[in-house]
Amino acid sequence: MAFFFCVFLGVSIGIGLIIAFARYGKIRSTRRTDLARTIAAFARLTVQDSRKILPRQFYPPWVVFSQRQKLSWLNVQLEKIWPSVDEAASELIRASVEPILEQYTPAILSSMKFDKLTLGTVAPQFTGISVVECESGADGITMEMDMQWDGNPNIVLNINTKLGVSLPVQVKDIGFTGVFRLIFKPLVAQFPCFGAVAYSLREKRDLDFTLKVIGGDLSSIPGVSDAIEETIRNAVEDSITWPVRNIVPILPGDYSDLELKPVGTLDVKLVQAKELTNKDIIGKSDPFAVLFIRPLPDKTKRSKTIDNQLNPIWNENFEFIVEDVSTQYLTIKVFDDEGVQGAELIGCAQLALKELEPGKVKEVWLKLVKDLLVQRDNKYRGQVQLELLYNPYGTDSTFKNPFDADFSLTSLEKALKSPNSETEALAPEKAGQKKREVIVRGVLSVMVISGENLPPVDFNGKADPFVVLTMKKSETKSKTRVANETLNPVWNQTFDFVVEDALHEMLIIEVWDHDTFRKEKIGRIVMTLTRVLLEGEFQDNFTIDGAKSGKLHLHLKWSPQLVFRDRDTK
To answer: Which positions fall inside the C2 domain (predicted)?
Structure first.
């Protein structure tokens, strides 16, 4: 009897435990589900929702919810430490900027040095802050801070002129707005968790200041004020403006990877401009172009001046060093040359280098504007045509570079060589100190197929068009027959031109209307030989510049023959 009782008791307790564990598991599962729902609900909370739930008097002092509050806290802390920052930054500026001032000292002056340098009692104000995720990388943090400073610094420059006159010049009323970039890199497992800080002026939006001679008038010496101002701006550009980076080591280590290094070259062919604004009262403007990536005297290129022309053709090649393709721009400014009176700006334009595909020639037409920063003036000022080629360092050149005048050992030389020229290329030098350079010589075949929708120029609503083809450098000309009384002429005529230097040659195609007593120009097409050099042969429709309407249908073919020329390297 006792045995059966114990069996019953054991079975009952086992069943009870099973039921209890099952119930507990269900309760635990329900609690987990409810907790997950609660966490999901909190995750969907916005700042406004949290403010409704938690009254403001319960906020911890370090909790802020708006960008304005963050910046206010940061500006308050900067004001507190500004006296110490002033002392440290003044010495840093003196040490880094003074050698650059000497470097850019104009010819009219003999020396420029700091006599006094303090940043004053007014601290800068930060108006924005952001983390640049796309450029931070896995081992660093990149921050950008918008800054405004209307300071009261005490900056006195000791300036000596070539005439032996010493001028103490005070820099006053400084107003500055811009964006500073801070790079904390590399991230390490040692306090303060980063090895070095690199700082740079990422964007200079505005920099104003006035110059005053202590105890005198600076305007009494012609040209000195402008020369000093230009020197100061050049020093700021070369010492702190991005992509220049100033590195402050925090922990011992090698931080050479943070230093400014060239990453490639940009080849620019300045082709032409059209429909430029006329700045002259009598006659037409005399345009020239200034191009730069960094606006420093030794990094700025200038074209030749084309007299009395609103549609100038330059056909000039320039090369620039690229230091940060992701942020830098090519800037072009077109001026009217006024001789001794200086130059007057016609218009300017910019192109972001990140828009260029490495190793691919890009042809662009850039519309000129009055100001690159404040584009409120919508007046049409003309356009500029460029051909651009970005060549990054450290990559094998598998593309053809039609802008490089020295083609030895390049892929273009191999691509364009005929068997005869290859044999000649391998021949040893027969002369002493001579350098062999290759001239891209060949035959350009141009087939003028037809015209389309030409503008009517005769009284009967028709035209008698013919085409004149001119090689600009060699001045070789050919022309088609006249197509009578038609706006859609068909010629199908082919012309061959022997080109001695295809790199610097241009093809100018003009469309004329033929009449018995006069000839009227309808428009023109200007093209370099870059495309036909790269492609070898192509067929395309070209819009006629200067005409109200109309296109030309052309077929171009290039038959290369390299010519080697020895020249003295002395």
So the answer is: 245-366, 418-542
Q: Is 218 helix (H, G, I), strand (E, B) or coil?
A: helix
> Is the peptide bond between 192 and the residue preceding it cis, with omega within 30 degrees of 0?
yes
Same structural domain, 194 and 309:
no
Spatial distance between the Cα atoms of 307 and 316, rounded to a whole number of angstroms: 16
- Residue 84 in 3-state DSSP? helix
Specify if 216 maps to a domain.
Answer: yes
The string of DSSP codes covering 460-499 is: TS---EEEEEEETTT--EEEPPP--S-SS-EEEEEEEEEE
Could you tell me the CA-to-CA distances from 309 to 10, 269, 272, 339, 544 in Å, in that order? Answer: 112, 19, 11, 16, 18
Residue 456 lies in a domain: yes
Q: Same domain for 129 and 186? A: yes
Q: Domain span at residue 462?
A: 442-560
Query: pLDDT of 542-563, one tens digit each?
Result: 999 988 899 999 999 999 875 5
Q: For the chain, how big is the Rg over CA atoms in Å?
A: 35
Asked if 199 contacts 144 with a C-beta cutoff of 8 angstroms, the reply is: no
pLDDT higher than 60, residue 407:
no
Residue appearing with tokens 């509050």:
69
Q: Are residues 225 and 80 in the same domain?
A: yes
Which of 249, 274, 292 is where one domain is finished? 249
Residue 520, beta-bridge partner list: 513
Same domain, yes or no: 99 and 163: yes
For strands 465-471 and 362-367, give the pairing. unpaired
Q: What is the percentage of the chain residues whose pLDDT exceeds 90?
A: 30
Domain shared by 98 and 205, yes or no = yes
301: in domain: yes
pLDDT per position as a tens digit, 38-76: 776 766 666 566 666 666 556 555 454 455 666 777 788
Long-range contacts of 337-342 (CB under 8 A, 24+ apart): 337/286, 337/287, 337/288, 337/305, 338/286
The span from the CA of 559 to the CA of 494, in Å, is 14
Q: Map residue 381 onto helix, strand or coil.
A: coil
The CA distances from residue 230 to 63, 104, 221, 244, 449, in Å, are 46, 9, 16, 19, 54
The reported pTM is 0.72
For residues 174 and 271, membership in a common domain is answered with: no
